[in-house]
């Protein structure tokens, strides 16, 4: 049958919560109803939208899988009049050794009409899908409005031999489905954000469209789940590689396109790296706090740039009325830092408490006088100050029922320039994937919209203020040098010799930084989860042993 009229299809770019079957189902039903009213005949929702992504080991619970099926059946019954494609978990064949598959279901006429399961299961970076899912042995086309639809799930579209220099899988599901007669590629995704990812994803999908001479429609999840942020930015691309429809970045959206004329809605996206990184941090913070059941957040305000940026993000994420700033001056805190913290809180419109740690610190020192007798003061006394502050923050967290946001950046976390049970305390490390140089750029971005962070905070030399006249440069290389070494070593896995040669850095300096990275792995594995915005973040996407002999 030939279809020559308008065939309106919608992309339902939603923010699901893992395990919230009733909430996710209600959202899918709502978006589907809105699309049906607008005249759409089909709507696509993201990968595992019914149960939320990533569910990780929850899929091992039979009750989780059963509730997921019940939710999908409820969605099918309540969305009649429009076909729905959404991601869900389905039972695997017994002999695979895995109990479930990552699947896409076509819901039509009140029932589950067609199921396509994911063939390519990623295991790199933050992904570990081979642990949880069995792969599809084969995939099939389905007919819809005169098209042979090639339905794929996220990674299934990431193995195009015309785009990648080195492929990770033997098979290319898109190639096989197009060879079988597919003339329209649909892809439902939960593709996490990192800076540069949206351009890569767009270019990859455009290459598929051009090389296969087929339209490609991709709907992506949006929102934060644990450390991951999903940017949405859903796309429809014509066979010439032109983007003909797109969804917003970092917010839920409903996008329409015509599968016959290949025209659609172009919703504005956040383009610059700094603006998109900031939006990701705000979204990740909001969803982490709310999805973990908290309503408010507490931040230690030192007067430094890291805590200032964290507070600005928290206010944009949660609202000023839900953020508490705490100044905790110690024996070496400057009056300027206290003034800067107070001014920041005023600019943000948040509650500010000033609680000195001097008496607590002196009490700790007195208690340890005997056992430390005859020993010189060193980093131990510095860390006691930091841990006094951590104790105060956690006491306030317990009393007020608010989540502590830790304020350490990626540069500090990378080399261990942070104190366990001190400045590392908290439930979420908001900027732990933000290098110090990016902290400065994002702070300037914040102030470009409205003067929030005091100029003195941005311009003064960074200091932990744990001893007289202390500066970060006393212990670390300049941050532009440190961040370059960390990028090469952590994100690109380059050797010390290669980094020194290509950057024209002193080899001993590079080796010293790398030793600091390796020796502080035990700290990072005890750190609060952070929000991933780089291609390689510290956390469960970077799996290194703690007890290891360095060859540096």
Structural features:
single chain, 552 residues, alpha/beta, Nitrilase/N-carbamoyl-D-aminoacid amidohydrolase, Rossmann fold, 2 domains, seven-stranded mixed β-sheet, six-stranded mixed β-sheet, 17 helices, 37% helix, elongated
Describe the structure.
The protein has helices at residues 21-37, 62-78, 129-132, 173-179, 197-212, 273-291, 305-318, 335-348, 358-368, 379-400, 410-415, 436-449, 455-459, 479-491, 496-503, 507-519, 521-524; strands at 8-13, 42-44, 83-91, 100-108, 111-117, 142-144, 147-153, 184-189, 216-220, 222-225, 228-231, 235-237, 243-246, 253-258, 263-264, 297-300, 323-327, 351-354, 403-406, 428-429. Helix 6 (273-291) packs across helix 7 (305-318) and helix 7 (305-318) packs across helix 12 (436-449). It has a 7-stranded mixed beta sheet with strand order 5-4-3-2-1-14-15. A 6-stranded mixed beta sheet has the order 6-7-8-9-12-13, with helices on one face. The protein has a 5-stranded parallel beta sheet with strand order 18-17-16-19-20, sandwiched between helices. Strand 19 (403-406), helix 11 and strand 20 (428-429) form a beta-alpha-beta unit. The protein contains 17 helices and 20 strands. With 552 residues, it is of the alpha/beta class. It has 2 domains: 8-269, Nitrilase/N-carbamoyl-D-aminoacid amidohydrolase (4-Layer Sandwich), CATH 3.60.110.10; 276-427 and 434-474, HUPs (Rossmann fold, 3-Layer(aba) Sandwich). The radius of gyration is 26 Å and the shape is elongated. 37% of the residues lie in helices and 18% in strands.
């Amino acid at each position: 049958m030939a279809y020559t009229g308008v065939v309106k299809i919608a992309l339902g770019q939603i923010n699901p919560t893992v395990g919230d079957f009733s909430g996710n189902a209600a959202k899918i039903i709502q978006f589907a109803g809105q699309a049906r009213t607008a005249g759409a005949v089909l709507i696509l929702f993201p990968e595992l939208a019914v149960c939320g992504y990533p569910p990780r080991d929850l899929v091992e619970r039979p009750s989780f899988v059963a509730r997921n099926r019940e939710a999908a059946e409820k969605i099918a019954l309540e969305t009649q009049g429009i076909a729905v494609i959404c991601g869900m978990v389905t039972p695997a064949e017994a002999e695979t050794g895995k109990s479930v598959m990552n699947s896409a279901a076509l819901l039509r006429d009140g029932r589950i009409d067609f199921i396509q399961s994911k063939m390519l299961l990623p295991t790199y970076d933050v992904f570990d899908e081979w642990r949880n899912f069995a792969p599809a042995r084969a995939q099939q086309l389905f007919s819809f409005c005169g098209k042979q639809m090639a339905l794929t799930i996220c990674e299934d579209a990431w193995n195009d031999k015309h785009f990648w220099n080195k492929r990770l899988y033997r098979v290319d599901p898109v190639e096989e489905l197009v060879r079988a007669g597919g003339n329209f590629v649909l892809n439902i995704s939960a593709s996490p954000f990192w800076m540069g990812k949206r351009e890569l994803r767009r270019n990859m999908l455009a290459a598929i469209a051009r090389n296969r001479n087929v339209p490609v429609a991709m709907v992506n999840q949006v929102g934060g789940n644990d450390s991951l942020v999903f940017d949405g930015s859903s796309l429809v691309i014509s066979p010439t590689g032109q983007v003909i429809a797109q969804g917003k970045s970092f917010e839920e959206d409903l996008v329409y396109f015509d599968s016959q004329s290949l025209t659609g809605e172009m919703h504005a996206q956040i383009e610059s790296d700094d603006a998109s990184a900031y939006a990701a941090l705000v979204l990740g913070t909001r969803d982490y706090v709310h999805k973990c059941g908290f309503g408010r957040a507490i931040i230690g305000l030192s007067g430094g740039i890291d805590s200032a940026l964290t507070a600005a993000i928290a206010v944009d994420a949660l609202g000023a009325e839900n953020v508490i700033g705490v100044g905790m001056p110690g024996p070496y805190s400057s009056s300027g830092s206290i003034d800067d913290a107070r001014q920041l809180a005023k600019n943000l419109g948040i509650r500010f408490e000033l609680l000195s740690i001097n008496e607590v610190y002196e009490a700790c020192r007195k208690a340890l006088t005997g056992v430390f007798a005859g020993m010189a003061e060193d980093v131990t006394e510095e860390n006691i100050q930091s841990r006094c502050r951590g104790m105060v923050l956690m006491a306030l967290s317990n009393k007020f029922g608010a989540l502590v946001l830790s304020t350490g950046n990626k540069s500090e976390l990378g080399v261990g320039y942070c104190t366990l049970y001190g400045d590392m305390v908290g439930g979420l490390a908001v900027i732990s994937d933000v290098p110090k140089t990016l902290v400065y750029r994002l702070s300037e971005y914040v102030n470009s919209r409205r003067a929030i962070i005091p100029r003195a905070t941005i311009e003064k030399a960074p200091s932990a203020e744990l001893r007289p006249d202390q500066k970060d440069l006393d212990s670390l290389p300049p941050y532009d040098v440190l961040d370059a070494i960390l990028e090469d070593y952590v994100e690109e896995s380059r050797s010390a010799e290669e980094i020194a040669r290509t950057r024209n850095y002193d080899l001993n300096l590079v080796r010293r930084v790398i030793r600091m990275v390796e020796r502080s792995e035990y700290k990072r594995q005890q750190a609060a989860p952070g929000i991933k915005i780089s291609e390689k973040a510290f956390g469960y996407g970077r799996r290194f042993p703690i007890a290891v002999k360095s060859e540096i």
